[in-house]
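Researcher: Re-running this chain for the archive, since the previous output was lost when a drive failed. Same request as before.
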Amino acid sequence: MSEARRHTCDQLAAWGLDDMSFTTELVVSELVTNAIRYGKSPVQLRMILQSGLTSEVSDAGSTAPHLRRARAFDEGGRGLLLVAQLTEHWGTRHHREGKVIWAERLIPAFPAETLPF
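Model: Regenerated structure tokens:
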């Protein structure tokens, strides 16, 4: 898990998106935790920077994730709810070798006076 968080922070720093680290690290942590807990090995993380920032976690399991509302004293069950609240979009793609759970965040716009060009 710490490797996924470290990779996330390093990649965001390389892209100049340090301000997105805390929330993205939380989202990735929840996705990877779910893949480890409910999926099957191998678990892989991929981050994609296009018009938004997409974090994808794949595993070899076929079980589809679902949102659930945890009760006040439940110790788990809040991961996907957090992902849904912290991202603009999330979903699942199934393929022959398992599934990919992805979450997309918008990239904050630069104020006009701080644009790099």
